[in-house]
Amino acid sequence: MSSVYLMISKYLKPLAEVDAAREDHLTFLAGLEERGLSVTAGRQEPAVGGIILLDVDTEAEAHELIAQDPYVQRGLAEYTATGWHPTRGALAGYQRNRP
Fold this sequence. Notes:
The protein contains 4 helices and 4 strands, in the order E-H-H-E-E-H-H-E. It has 99 residues and is of the alpha+beta class. It has a single domain, classed as Dimeric alpha+beta barrel (Alpha-Beta Plaits), CATH 3.30.70. It has a 4-stranded antiparallel sheet with strand order 2-3-1-4.
């Protein structure tokens, strides 16, 4: 069974500052998707942070990847990592799909 890491962010700056870097953040996410490292991602509601579901082997790898996020590099957000094994619903039985 594959494990994934929920990377849950908290914005550290006002939303206007975060949004000014959003295009760079979305480009970063697109790169993760192309490499098969991101399962899904999105902003929380209300917009206080976001969630990225990473398909990596270890928490250390998750933190290493997320350190490259422009939001992190610019001090706009911080992330916590939570390991997760999807067993029910749409992601039940999730299998890694790398290019």
